[in-house]
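Q: Please design a sequence for this.
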């Protein structure tokens, strides 16, 4: 699959969707968005533990690249998602699955991109499970394959397992596209500091490549069955250091106790999904 500039290319882009856990993640695939003008879904408002919602900045960014908001746009705060996990409120996640699947079906989407399951944040990983299952439902209903890609957030932009390099989508930005991307990232006020740190750490050229990888969920799940994801360590350290003030809860979110049961509920809902008549 080759990315083609909307201003210079002649190959029409298939209908695309972008599904992320937090607003701002879309900056990693800025030029891909310029090419595909995707339908955009975002589960949380990006407010974190004490911050402000980032949906306004993402709304401006979507307008900039010609993308369209889906029905889910900053639906929950991060703290609400964590509390749903801790309380086993799986109906929230199965509801999100249903809405995402219906959105993909209604738009006859052919390409989906979204967060990778890196183990750094439980909401990122849950988002990937929602994506995979929504895609599976939509494929079953529509009767055609949907290309399903992920992109990393806690690794260099061009990070890709060697065995997947040939099947990944590589979007190479020219100087003008790179400047547009960096300008958009620096204009995204709430993430400007992260952008500046990323530029210092990886260098400007690293962001001239956007790598979309076929979904690696199965590999991630197999890994987390015997190796705890990093978010467990972050959570444990935070709770031990700050107590209940850390995210306003004392219990640590774990893969086995909280995330895995939510994933099972999502998978079961996907199997039982029936399209609206």
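A: Design:
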């Amino acid at each position: 699959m080759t990315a083609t500039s909307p201003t210079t290319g002649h190959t029409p882009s298939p209908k695309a969707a972008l599904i992320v856990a937090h607003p701002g993640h879309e900056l990693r695939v800025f030029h891909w968005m310029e090419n595909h003008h995707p339908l955009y879904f975002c589960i949380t408002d990006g407010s974190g533990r004490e911050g402000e919602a980032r949906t306004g900045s993402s709304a401006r960014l979507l307008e900039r690249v010609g993308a369209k908001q889906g029905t889910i746009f900053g639906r929950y705060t991060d703290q609400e998602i964590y509390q749903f996990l801790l309380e086993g409120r799986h109906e929230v996640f199965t509801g999100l699955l249903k809405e995402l699947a219906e959105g993909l079906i209604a738009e006859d989407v052919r390409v989906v991109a979204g967060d990778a399951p890196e183990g750094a944040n439980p909401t990122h990983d849950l988002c990937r499970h929602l994506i995979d299952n929504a895609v599976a439902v939509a494929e079953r209903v529509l009767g055609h394959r949907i290309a399903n890609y992920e992109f990393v957030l806690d690794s260099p932009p061009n990070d890709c397992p060697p065995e997947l390099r040939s099947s990944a989508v590589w979007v190479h930005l020219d100087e003008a596209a790179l400047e547009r991307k960096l300008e958009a990232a620096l204009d995204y006020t709430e993430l400007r500091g992260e952008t500046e740190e990323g530029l210092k750490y990886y260098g400007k050229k690293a962001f001239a490549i956007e790598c979309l990888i076929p979904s690696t969920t199965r590999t991630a799940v197999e890994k987390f069955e015997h190796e705890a994801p990093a978010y467990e360590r972050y959570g444990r350290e935070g709770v031990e250091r700050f107590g209940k003030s850390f995210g306003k809860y004392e219990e640590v979110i774990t893969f086995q106790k909280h995330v895995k049961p939510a994933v099972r509920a999502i998978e079961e809902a996907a199997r039982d999904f029936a399209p609206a008549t």
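Q: Thanks. Anything notable?
A: Residues 1-10 have pLDDT under 50 and may be disordered. The first helix runs from residue 30 to 36.
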